[in-house]
Amino acid sequence: MREPYYFFRPILAADLSWAALDWQPAAATGSAELARCFAESGATPLSDLLPLVTPLDPAWLEDAAFGDGFNSGRVIFMLPAASLEDPQIIERCQQLRGQGHRFGVDVDSAELIRRVPVAAFDYLRLDAAFARQDIPVAELKYARHAGFHKIATRIDAYEMFDALSDKSFDWYDSHFLTTRNPHFGKEPNLTRLKLLKQDGPVWAFRILDAPGFQGLENTADHFSKPWKVFFPARQWELERCPRSESCALQADENASARVYALLAYTNASVEIPPERFAFRPTLRWLLRARGQGALDCVQIVNGQPCSTNGLSISATNWTWYAVPTSAYPGFAPVGLALHHAKGAVDLDFALLLDGDWSSPAKGQQVELPGAIFFHAGMTDLTHAAAVFRVRYDGAGISFYGPKLPLEAGDYQVAVEIASSAASGTELGALNLDQSDVTLAVTPVIAGQAARMRVHSARNLPINLVFVYSGKADVALHRVIFSRIE
Fold first, then answer.
1. CA 356 to CA 282: how far, in whole Å?
2. How far, rounded to the nearest angstrom, does the alpha carbon of residue 6 sit from its chain's CA centroid?
3. How far apart are CA 390 and CA 468, in angstroms?
4. 73 Cβ contact partners less than 8 Å away, ≥ 6 residues apart
5. How many Å apart are CA 453 and CA 431, to the nearest integer?
């Protein structure tokens, strides 16, 4: 059955203009299916405007009709690094390149760059942190002189974008655009606002004389049920954070980005860069770690260490550990330095959470009000819902979260949706992602239940995305995660 949505994300040039589109089609089973996706997803006219960059299963190159149905030279097919070990794949790429098609390869080691045949490939795609820290300048210069276009992925901050711009990358993924731009100066201090009342799209606030939290702590004043958790807006791949030379990187398929940081030696450390947060008593760090050892977790406020918490790690598998925050004044830049104390500790991922969160046990469920998800549209405080209206809200990704971990297992995910649209009206689609894997996609149709069953193989944060169709008004009231197995 045809999947209703396909993801297109902008790829940027050095001047931040759109240079290409990252195309993530629905799961295809062969080159013919990929060509059908290309035609039915509306990618054909897009490729006339900007080239599309999309992953390709090397096995599909064996199809004699591969390439039929694609705009020659307007789709860049990216192959995994292992493709360079197969002479037949290289020969086939060279043949198709002679017909106008374009290919790239994902580079996962510095030694690989000089092994990429210039007669078969035009593009090299590299992880941003890997390219910044582990690729010698000489190899990047070679790639430029050889005529390869370099694409940087997983850029998580403007500072990373600036660093790769200095290394003369050609294209950049656009994820960092959702982070704070330090070139724009300080962020507004929203801790001086107290919510008074909401009436439809109108919100009334009082400006306080000093920062405070009166508008948050007594949520029962505004909501039928107090909210117990606020989703993490910041998360970090710890192997990409600044680290000491004695902190080694190791590969692991079960790590979030397939790489983790090993702290096993004296002076080994990883530091989560500072971000501005207002203190809350329920604010805490969550660390995905394993091993047998201990860490000294040093909270850094305004560039100065202010408190230290010892954390014992004793786990064979990846496990989530909580580190409390200590009180600090105002809306301050806060970071966390993780220092080796004893033993050996593997560090993978971190996030900053406000409130209580635990993955549901078998037979249990967690209900989350729609209003606490990151969303566009309007918040309905009375029903704790996220509301999208045709008159005001455009189609596209409009709702996502919780970006919190689920333990490995089978789950049913149900979304309680209300709409006055006629039965059968297409309201949008739901996509459930975990790290770089899409677990499920389902359409949202008026008059039909919106639910999906998924299997989580790793206890990593999950992200439920609602893609609004813009065809009818709709309210998302609740999301329910039920543990089946």
1. 8
2. 16
3. 10
4. 51, 100, 101, 102
5. 12
AA letter at 92: R
What b-and-e string marks burial along 446-475, b requiring 16 or more CB atoms within 10 Å of the CB?
beeebebebebebbbbbbbbbbbbbebbbb
**The pTM is what?**
0.61
Query: 38, 34, 57: which is closest to 47 by C-alpha?
Result: 38
How far is the C-alpha of 268 from the C-alpha of 273, rounded, in Å?
16
Q: What is the pLDDT along the chain (485 residues), one digit of tens a residue?
A: 334 345 678 899 988 888 888 887 655 567 777 777 777 666 677 777 888 898 888 888 888 778 776 767 788 999 999 999 999 999 999 998 888 889 999 998 899 999 999 999 999 999 998 888 888 888 999 998 999 999 999 888 888 899 899 888 999 998 788 777 777 666 555 556 777 777 767 778 887 776 554 444 444 444 445 678 889 888 899 988 888 878 888 999 899 988 999 999 988 999 998 888 888 888 999 999 999 999 999 999 988 999 999 999 999 999 999 999 999 887 888 999 999 999 999 999 999 999 889 999 999 999 999 999 999 999 888 888 999 999 888 888 899 999 999 999 999 999 999 999 999 999 999 999 988 788 999 999 999 999 999 999 999 999 999 999 999 999 999 999 999 98
Q: Distance of CA 461 to CAs 250, 255, 436, Å?
A: 21, 12, 11
Domains observed in the chain? 7-178 (3.20.20.450), 191-217 (no CATH), 235-354 (2.60.120.260), 365-483 (2.60.120.260)
